[in-house]
Amino acid sequence: MKALRNFIDRIKPNFEPGGKFGALYSTFDAFETFLFVPNEVTKKGSHIRDYIDMKRTMIIVVMALAPALLFGIWNVGYQNALATGSEISFWPMVLHGLIKVLPIVVVSYVVGLAIEFAFAQVRKHEVNEGFLVSGFLIPLIVPVDTPLWMIALATAFAVIIGKEVFGGTGMNIFNPALLARAFLFFAYPSHMSGDYVWVSGLTKGEGIIDGFSGATPLAHATLTGAENLPSALDMFFGFIPGSIGETSTLAILIGAAILVVSGIGSWKIMVSTVAGGLLMGVILNLFALNPFMEIPPWYHLIMGGFAFGAVFMATDPVTGSQTEKGKWIYGFLIGLLAVLVRVFNPAYPEGMMLSILLMNAFAPLIDYYVIQGNIKKRKKIAAAAAKNS
What we know:
With 389 residues, this protein is mainly alpha-helical. The protein has helices at residues 2-15, 25-35, 54-84, 90-123, 131-140, 148-162, 176-187, 217-224, 232-237, 249-262, 267-286, 306-313, 324-344, 351-388. The protein is 62% helix and 0% strand. The chain is globular, with a radius of gyration of 23 Å. The model has no long low-confidence stretch (mean pLDDT 87).
C-alpha cells in the first residue's frame, strides 16, 4: 500500500488545478479517496470528527449486500437447473449464476458511474459516493432475464432523473435503485411481471421441462392464496424464483445484522416496517374476502421484496425520515401499505416498491410534524415551568 500511496502522490500534481490534467481533478480525487482516507481537515465551523467517511459507509452497505448477491448467484443457477431438469451440483450452478448476474452488475456500474463522473467533471465537483450502493442494489432487485440494454436505460434514468436533477447524492427525494425498478416496471411491464422472467432461460423456453412455470410465490398467492405456495422454509432460505437478491430472507437478515451493528442502518425503520406488514396481514385475515387475504400474516415477510425493501431500501438515510419518532411512523406505514397494495391490487403484486417510493415523498412531511410536535411540547413545558416559578 505504501508503494501505491507514493505513486499517487507522485502523479497528483498533474491532476490538480493548473496541472497537465487539471480538468480531470474530480475523477482523480474520486479514485484517491476511494483508496485512502482523505488527509484534509475542516477549515471553519464546528464539526464532529469521525473516522468513517461517506465512502466507508457505502462500502459497509455493499458488504451487507454481499450475502444476498452471493446467494442470488447460486439461486439463479439452481432455478435454471430445476427448469431444465439438469443435474443439480454446486459449482455448475454458481458458474451459471455468475455468467448471468455479473454482466448485469457490470452494466449497472459502468453506466451509472460514467454519468456520475460526467456530471462531476462538468460541475467541477467531487464524485458522489452514493452510486457505490445504488449500482449494487439495481442488479439485486431485477429479474435475471432482464435484457442488459434495459438495465442500462433504467440505470441512466435513476441517476439522471432520480439524483442529478436534484443536485446529486444527499439531495435526491426518491431512492434511485427503486426508481430504476419503477422505470422498468412501467416502461417494460412484460419484463417485470409474469411467470417467465424470474428464471434464467425461461424467456426463450429452450430446454424447459414440462410443467415448470417459474411463477414466484407472490404470483401463486395472488391466484390461489396459500394453496400452491412453496414451503415456508424454502421461502425463508430463498429456494424460489424471484429477483436476483430478494429471495433469501436469511441472507438479507445477515445484511441487516451488519447494518445494525455498524450503526448505518436504522433498526427502528426495519422493526416498524415488519410491524406494519404484520398488522395489515392480521387485519386482512379478519376480513378475508379472497384467498390472498387468508395467508398467514408472517408469510408476507418472506415473500417478494418485503424483507429486502425493509432492510436496504426503507433505511436509506437520504430518502427516509430523519427524526427518531418519524422513523417509527415512516417504517410502519411502509409495511402497512406494502401488504395492502399486494393484496388489493393484483396488477402490482410487489407492493414494497410502490409503498417505499410513496413514503419517500411523505418523509419530509412526517419529520416536519414530528419537529413541530416537539416544539409545542417544549413550549408547554417552558410555560408551565415559568408559571410555577
